[in-house]
Amino acid sequence: MKLNLLSLIVAFVTTLGCIQAQDKATPIFENGEAQPVKAFSNPSEWITHDLWVETEFNTDGDDKPDRMHVSVTRPKQTETEGLKLPVIYVSSPYFAGVAPDTDGLFHSVEVELGDTPKERVHPEVTRRGKRPVISKSHINTWVPRGYIVVHSSSPGTGLSQGSPSLGGDNESLAPKAVIDWLNGRAKGYTEIDSNEEVKATWSTGKVGMTGTSYNGTIPLAAATTGVEGLEAIIPIAPNTSYYHYYRSNGLVRSPGGYLGEDIDVLYDFIHSGDEAKRPYNNKTMRDEILAANMDRETGDYNEFWASRDYLNDMKPMKAALLMSHGFNDWNVMPEHSYRIYKQAKEQGIPSQIFYHQNGHGGPPPFSMMNKWFTRYLHGIENNVEDDAKAWIVRENDKRDNPTSYEDYPNPEAKPVTLYINKGAPKAGTLSTTMLDNKGTEILHDDASIAGAELATAKESKHRLLYVTPTLTKDLHISGVSDITVSLSSNTPAANLSVWLVSLPWNEDKKAKITDNIITRGWADPQNYKSISKGEALKKGEFYDVTFSLQPDDQIIPEGQQIGLMIFSSDKEFTLHPKPGTALTIDLDKTSLNLPVVGGKDALENAFKQ
Known about the structure:
- The chain is an alpha+beta fold.
- Helices cover about 20% and strands about 25% of the residues.
- The strands form 5 sheets. It has a 12-stranded mixed beta sheet, sandwiched between helices. Strands 17, 18, 19, 20, 22, 23, 24, 25, 27, 28 and 29 form an 11-stranded mixed beta sheet that branches. It has a two-stranded antiparallel ribbon with strand order 1-2.
- Helix 4 (about 170-180) packs across helix 5 (about 215-225) and helix 7 (about 265-270) runs antiparallel to helix 8.
């Protein structure tokens, strides 16, 4: 009897334990994606707290390791049921506010090429935000799906110690420290000056990062450290090189929409950290490192810029990479993602790229992001790594309906060489036929004239325009166009700008962003040999300047013509020297390589009447 009673008690306890185990909330997956879980979905039950993670660097002059301010939002079950979950982590310099757009914040672009810029205005950031929440971004999306969401302010912003460095080592090591803390390898503290530790006992140690623009740069920065636990990143329109953001082939070029911005301007814009530390940071980081080395006089690539190019740091990287960018992003140009995606593939890193046809920002479809994090953070075998490598939103499609391709550029794209024939001041021709002895044509610089005005003018002495025959069939271009411009200048320095346009120009205010500009690029003729060292141009001497335009994937519709426009100063992007520089173009030595899907046959077939 006693034995039977004991057996019944054991059976009852075991059954009760199974029922309780079955009642515990766990993530749910369908079709390879994490689904909202009712038990995780009540915001009033989420646990929210903040802390400071100690780093291995000191950048604000106080002889103590800088600590990063971190906030955590997690389901209550991570506390009540011992549930461990992976982390979606977002870091930013913007969470605590930015400087006002004060007159004089940007460098003046009304300067002669090679001149030293005048001193500009240095505004102060009024810090905002209350503890313990740094940001609410991504929380409502991911916490119900079985993730913990973590935010941190980057160095020298918000309540994080240190100094902004705009791509310096501390902006890579700061998120690394947070990921180390999530894996038990770094220390977190309850207060900025406390010795009371906080441990991430609720973390599985698997971390994914995402964000847009600067917030998309930081995931890549963290990944280049090779930190263990960072399994996947989804950078959206990230700045992957400060040189490529503020310069182009030796030329000083502003990011679209921010004429006169430079790396020291962005420093002032984001420096929302401790007011008491700002004078030291301004002197040592902004003035002695950033402003002293950015070189607005020549625009040359140097060691300073090389140290802020994440392509140079990718060797340790192993986090799975899903990149997102817009082909018409003239702020953070589409080359930023392409160059990283290309290198990641070469290193054997699981990689995919999503391109849309719009401007700055724009994440991949949520389903793509969900599958990416589900695969690499929860370990669910959904075969996302075997999906198509490239996803491109076609011109008339919605962003959540991309077309899949084997890769980007389209493997069927081949470079087709196009040659120019004279026609100035009107339009000349652009064709696959190479003619000899075409001579030269001259354009006269005038930075006061916008590029769109030059492209639509029936004739102009301020640009050279060469157009193809009218397309009788749609033409698909995919990849990077390369151009060689053979020129001479009547001045020692000159801007060189190139637009590839679709004509006739659609002047309707509701025109699609893809209707007019196909792609574009800029270069400094003084850097015809190397972007690292320019030389003054000699009057009457010709120089062959070869450079790439921004990557693109676009279907040019029948009825349009492709136009190659060569001009000097670009009102929206370059410095504005006084009018008068004359560039003489050698037509025999100037050509464009256009990446056409189907190659030369497809291009010539599209020209047939």
